[in-house]
Model the fold of this input.
Amino acid sequence: MKNRDVAKLTENYVAHTYARYPIALVRGKGARVWDADGKEYLDFLAGIAVNSLGHCHPAIVRAIQQQARKLIHVSNLYHILPQSELARELCRHSFADRVFFCNSGAEANEAAIKLARRYGGEHSNGKYEILSTHNSFHGRTLATLTATGQEKVRAGYDPLPAGFRQIPFNDLRAAEEAIDEQKTVGILVEPIQAEGGINVPDENYFRGLRELCDRRGLLLIFDEVQTGVGRTGKLFGYEHFGVEPDIMTLAKALGGGLPLGAMLAREAVAQSFVPGSHASTFGGNPLVCGVGLAVMKTLLKGGVLKNSVKMGKVFMQRLHALKARFPFIRDIRGKGLMLGIELEMEGTKIVEACMQEGLLINCTAYRVLRFVPPLTIKQKEIDRGLRILEEVLARQ
Done:
């Protein structure tokens, strides 16, 4: 099949929930992908920060093959060795004591919301309200889209669940003033707003939130679905800010391309989940957790984190050089290999032009070009990709 044939098949049978580009990607290796017509692209989107080790990394392929030959799925009614091992690794390398596994970032955030409410019911006189931030993104389920601070995500789904309010991001005073002593149980926030435009807060913001939550008896919940598992140059984004949350959510890169999400919590909070209080049929099954273990091992022992830090600095330097050349670039921001260019104009046409030239990126918050390439990216690939971007920008 060619691109047009796959596109026609999609148009005829798949729900129209995505505005898809007119290519069908059929093969990948490292930071490169090929479409059904045989055209090669540099992938600086990585499945939206999912393929952190690149496409078809040998460790991931090997983990899939080995686990698939032994056991693909069993119910969580039984103990699952790869799940327990992955939970141990996540706890060893984070603040957490317990892990709940699911299938996506939205499900991980649902679990965090449910845990916070149960904790509030048991320890905080029935408090249930979650404060989140403007321009945030937390998922597409009814609860997580209600927590999301973007009207375009919530539009058309009224009546939305009660118990959520949005406050300005990076504003400690607004956070403190918004707390309702009778209702508010926690604050849900991304260390770096991803879909909101790669927004990085001030250095003292999270320290202030941690102090505020401690002083007012609230849970601090970090949505690390996109910032977690090495994306920012550290294993978890919160490590940049010198604070630890009470609850954290992960997904995207954790499964190396397979659907795997996780909600991590301190023991004192996690105790509010008891048998029957929450569950997931496919969550943490042997296959995805076997791959998750391979991802963690490769990140921690394979030099990937070091590469992401080094290449992140190279990438950032190249982007600042572009800013110096093109006056319509308003800002460069991000950490590690989670970077964005804010433009003075809408970015969709630039994304499309880059795709035509063999570079895959995307635009978020209308005017921010987002770059989340594999953490295994090489300098020559960064140079090649940004040459394409520079040529496209020069035509604007």
